[in-house]
């Protein structure tokens, strides 16, 4: 298989494109030259205009699968030649699993050229055989996912007839590919609790009508270099006697603290104290103990002005993405999971020990339902209602938690960065 990025010119853009292929393949890319002069595009004959790499075996299969997932395994017939070779492109290389946006490199499209062959004296492949092979590849991935990804649904029939099920049109849009290590690196998670319903969240929460999140996001961005690490910012739905439109309750994880009724004027000094001066229960900078040890050993809440009260969050906190205007999958699935969590909490009489929040976009909507559990900072994807008892018991129970968490591994997306 050949990977090709054509930028149509020599110079800096070609150098940056080369770095992308080198990161993907571990190879030094070859340089492609223009075969003729094209004056309308400013291209000279023999000018360096593209970079490409050829890969085989396991690496080729891995890269091809990552690329086909972006296309949802759907390629038109015209992509296939009569000799069995097929080609397709992606618009943005950062759509490939594992690739992150780097402002110093930018975003590039990329072409994939797959040359098929078979063993034997006649190793030629027809167009129909290449199409069939691509379909079989997709089917194998789907079947392996179906048979292994939902094993944590212990005690339930497949399909489950006991719990609520998701609409079929939503189920078919859930990505069944590998989701391990699909969590963007972050060391703290700040949930902004306001009385907005999750159905009122616009596509980007900074556009909420009161401007609170927009101001908070602006300050976090301005102070990013002083903070020195990434803070995940989401909205959360809370019930309050106060009108939390010009104020908000802050839920900070993994610190497990709640800061009440923070006004817009108080945002900046609190960020300075928590994130820059590192004055919280958890020490992120120059810490000498793990997060777990710090949570167990200290109850020293950060001290703010007299107008701001702070309290410790007790028990287990389960956060569920319900952001409908960002992506319908989480918008439909999230509230179903929240209902199931609340039912299980009531059933097991753990109202004071288990808490649930509806939150906005966290990344990875294609893996809906997305659930985060604190204080451990564990991220799960493709969670079904029948997984809820297992998920909660795994993080509440101490005696059998390791065995239960092992069963949840197929749903694991990653963790909060505790390094």
UniProtKB/TrEMBL annotation:
Top-level lineage group: Eukaryota
Any Pfam family matching the protein: Ribosomal_L5_C
Residues of the Large ribosomal subunit protein uL5 N-terminal domain: 3-43
Domain Large ribosomal subunit protein uL5 C-terminal: 49-123
Name listed for the protein in its UniProt record: Uncharacterized protein
Species for this entry: Adineta steineri
